[in-house]
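testing teh design pipeline on a random one, pls ignore if ur not involved
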C-alpha cells in the first residue's frame, strides 16, 4: 500500500510501529495552514487508511510548532471570490468529516500548538484527542464572518454541552489544552513535552488491541455523530453560503491585516 500514500505531498506519513500509521500535517513554515492541496489530502487520506489492512491505528499530528493554524489565506480568498472553488471545498469539507467518522481504524490526535479550521475539525473528531496543556483550540468561524460549520455543530455540544459550545463558537473564544480537558472537549491534556510520547503509547495500545472489538465499538459510538448528520449538513451549508455574503470579505481582510473585524449591523 506504500504507493497509495506517496501521492499525499502535504502529509508526512511513516510507521513508528508496524501497525501504527503516523500522519503529520507538513507545512511547518505556514504553521500547517490548510491550502487547497492539504485540504484535499486530509479529505482523501481516511479512505485509503480504511482500505489498508496493514494499519490498525492512526496517529495524527502537526509538524513544528502547530497542529494546524487554519485555512490558508489564498484559499480563503478564492472561496470568497469564486463559486466553483467554494462548491469544491464545501464537498471536501463534508467528505472530510464523514470519511473520518466512517474510517474503521481508530485515530489518535496529538494536538500541539494552535488547532484551527480543518485541523481543529480532525483533532476534535479523532477517536482519542490528546492535547498539549498549552495548545490553543480556536473555532474562528464567526470572527471570519461565516457560520461555525465544518465540524462544530456535530460534535461540540456532545462533548462539552450546549452552553459551553455556544460560548466558544459564538465568541470564537480560545480554549487551552488544559481547559479543553476540563470541559470534556478533548480526551486528555498532558504536559507539552509528554505529548508525542503519550499519544504514541495510546496509538500502540489501540494497534495491539482486539481489532474487531475496537472497530465495532468505534462504529457503534459514531452513530451518535451519524444521527447528527442533518445538523452538520445544515451548519456546513450555512457556512459556505456565508462565504458568498458581505461579512466574509471583511473577516478575511481583518485576518490578513491582523486587526479586529468591523462588521456592519444587520439591516434585515
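output:
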Amino acid at each position: 500500500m506504500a504507493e497509495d500514500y506517496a501521492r499525499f505531498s502535504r502529509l508526512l506519513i511513516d510507521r513508528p510501529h508496524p501497525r501504527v500509521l503516523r500522519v503529520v500535517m507538513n507545512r511547518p513554515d505556514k504553521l500547517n495552514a490548510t491550502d487547497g492541496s492539504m485540504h484535499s489530502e486530509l479529505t482523501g487520506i481516511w479512505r485509503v487508511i480504511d482500505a489498508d489492512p496493514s494499519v490498525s491505528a492512526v496517529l495524527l499530528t502537526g509538524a513544528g510548532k502547530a497542529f494546524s493554524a487554519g485555512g490558508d489565506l489564498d484559499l480563503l480568498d478564492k472561496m470568497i471570490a469564486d463559486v466553483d472553488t467554494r462548491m469544491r471545498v464545501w464537498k471536501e469539507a463534508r467528505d472530510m468529516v464523514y470519511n473520518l467518522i466512517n474510517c474503521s481504524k481508530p485515530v489518535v490526535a496529538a494536538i500541539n500548538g494552535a488547532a484551527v479550521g480543518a485541523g481543529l475539525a480532525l483533532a476534535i473528531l479523532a477517536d482519542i484527542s490528546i492535547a498539549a496543556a498549552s495548545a490553543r483550540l480556536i473555532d474562528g468561524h464567526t470572527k471570519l464572518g461565516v457560520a461555525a460549520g465544518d465540524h462544530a455543530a456535530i460534535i461540540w455540544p456532545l462533548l462539552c454541552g450546549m452552553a459551553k459550545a455556544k460560548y466558544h463558537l459564538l465568541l470564537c473564544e480560545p480554549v487551552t489544552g488544559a481547559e479543553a480537558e476540563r470541559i470534556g472537549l478533548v480526551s486528555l491534556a498532558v504536559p507539552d513535552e509528554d505529548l508525542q510520547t503519550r499519544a504514541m503509547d495510546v496509538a500502540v495500545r489501540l494497534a495491539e488491541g482486539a481489532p474487531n472489538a475496537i472497530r465495532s465499538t468505534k462504529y457503534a459510538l459514531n452513530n451518535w455523530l451519524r444521527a447528527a448528520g442533518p445538523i452538520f449538513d445544515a451548519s456546513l451549508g450555512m457556512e459556505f453560503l456565508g462565504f458568498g455574503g458581505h461579512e466574509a470579505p471583511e473577516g478575511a481582510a481583518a485576518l490578513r491585516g491582523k486587526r479586529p473585524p468591523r462588521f456592519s449591523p444587520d439591516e434585515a
